[in-house]
Design a protein that fits this description.
Layout (H helix, E strand, L loop, with lengths): L5 H132 L4
Membrane topology: Single-pass membrane protein
Main location: membrane
Protein name: ATP synthase subunit b
């Protein structure tokens, strides 16, 4: 059985003094350290969240710039194709005009040469017929 005497009060007083000393020397510093670590973890989590949000914003901005660059590149390709098509068409039209002009020039030259040849042949034919007539008749006609 437990006897209640004066030693119990001394033991309770020693226990409370020990509890007070342990609280001051160990429990409160450890508790402060735990609270500081918890705060540091929360601060790092907030920083990580901020960095994550910034990274997401940067990724969205990058995607937007990439899409804009792709759109610009597509527009440039279309413009270059249109310009090339226009230039090819202009070159074709110019070449066709040059060919037409060259044909007309050659045709005119051939006709002029043909007319000269006809005149020369006509003169030669007249001279030949005159010579033949002179030889056949035996005198100058």
């Amino acid at each position: 059985m437990i006897s209640l005497n004066a030693t119990i009060f001394v033991q309770v007083t020693c226990f409370l003094v020990l509890l007070f000393i342990l609280n001051r020397l160990m429990i409160q510093p450890v508790h402060k350290l735990i609270l500081q670590r918890d705060e540091a973890v929360r601060e790092r989590e907030r920083a990580l969240d901020a960095v994550s949000e910034e990274l997401q914003k940067m990724a969205k901005a990058y995607e937007a710039r990439l899409k804009a660059a792709e759109a610009d590149a597509q527009a440039a390709r279309v413009a270059m194709r249109e310009r090339a098509s226009r230039e090819a068409h202009e070159t074709l039209v110019t070449t066709q005009q040059e060919v037409t002009e060259l044909r007309q020039k050659v045709r005119a030259e051939v006709l002029a040469e043909l007319n000269r040849a006809r005149k020369d042949l006509k003169k030669q034919a007249e001279a030949l017929s005159f010579d033949i007539t002179t030889k056949v008749v035996g005198r100058r006609v």
